[in-house]
Amino acid sequence: MYKVLIIEDEDIIRNGLKYSFDWLSLDLIVVGDCRNGEEGLKGIAELHPDIVLLDINMPIKNGIDVLRESEGKYVFSTIIISGYDEFAYAQQAVKYGVTEYLLKPADQEQLMNALEKAKEQVELRKKFEMIKRNIKNPENLNLIKSEILTDNGQTSKYVASAIRYIKENYPKKISMNDLVEPLGMSITFLNKKFREETGYTFNEFLNLYRIQKSIELIKEGKMKITAIALSVGFSDYRYFNKVFKKYTTMLPSEFHDYFQKKNQLGSG
After folding, report:
1. CATH code at 100?
2. Co-location of 51 and 173 in the same domain
3. I want to staple 77 with a disulfide (CB 3.0 to 4.6 A). Which of 8, 66, 118, 155 is the partner?
4. Pairing between β-strand 2-7 and β-strand 100-103 as defined by DSSP bridges
5. pLDDT digits (tens, 9 = 90+) for 52-98
6. Whole-number Å distance between alpha carbons of 226 and 238
């Protein structure tokens, strides 16, 4: 469930957002509400929300102050809810990567759509932060959490089957369509279940797994990078480089150089 923090100085709007919207139907829960930017910054630090609904024009600290002072410290997505006279001011928030900005009073359907986008954005940011933390230490770079890869009953039989299929067939050209008939379920259902339980699409997970396997082979230092790319399922070497850098922020050659130097030091 995604945690939502509301930062809004007008009581009517703040309480309206909190009590008149069906948060649970979107897998959301309001964990707190704040009356100004200073309270909002404390709430972000203490409650670690996934999504922040943020007003712009507030006392003590405004919405832009909140975005500026929290940038780089916490991982969340932001929906600006602004008055007409503050609309131009709200546009300044774009540089802080806000998901959406809505005009007061926020329409329920617009807010619902914005929240769905915010959930997707915060997932992407969490993945990016995880990769950034990992890349600081190439020795322990794991792109996929071990509990997802382990068939320990935490995923449904459909998702467990899909993950097992990837692990057994990743060097080949495969897709979720291959599992429709064996599992007896629609492609729409399987894709939805896979994303819900892993946080990734089937193709994202497949590419992550392929890159993880390529990293293991690079560490061993027994194969050329071009051969590694082919062995993990990438027929196009340039595309392999692109995907590798997307998930690790480094090129395969840089990883290769790192472990080559490490092995040389270890044998010296």
Report:
1. 3.40.50.2300
2. no
3. 118
4. unpaired
5. 999 988 989 989 899 999 988 899 999 998 886 666 666 677 778 78
6. 10
DSSP code at position 106: P
> How are strands ordered across the β-sheet holding 77-82?
28-34, 2-7, 51-54, 77-82, 100-103
Question: Could you tell me if 157 and 110 lie in one domain?
Answer: no
The distance from CA 127 to its chain's CA centroid, rounded to whole angstroms, is: 4
The Cα 60–Cα 187 span in angstroms is: 51
pTM of the model: 0.55
Please tell me the total count of domains within the chain: 2
- In whole angstroms, give the CA distance from residue 170 to residue 214: 11
Show Cβ contacts of residue 219 under 8 Å, excluding neighbours closer than 6 positions: 259
For residue 230 the two structure tokens come to 């082919």
Burial class, 12, CB count within 10 angstroms (exposed 0-12 / middle 13-18 / buried 19+) = exposed
**Domain end residue (candidates: 131, 163, 181):** 131
> What letter represents residue 43's amino acid?
G
Of 114, 131, 148, the domain-final residue: 131
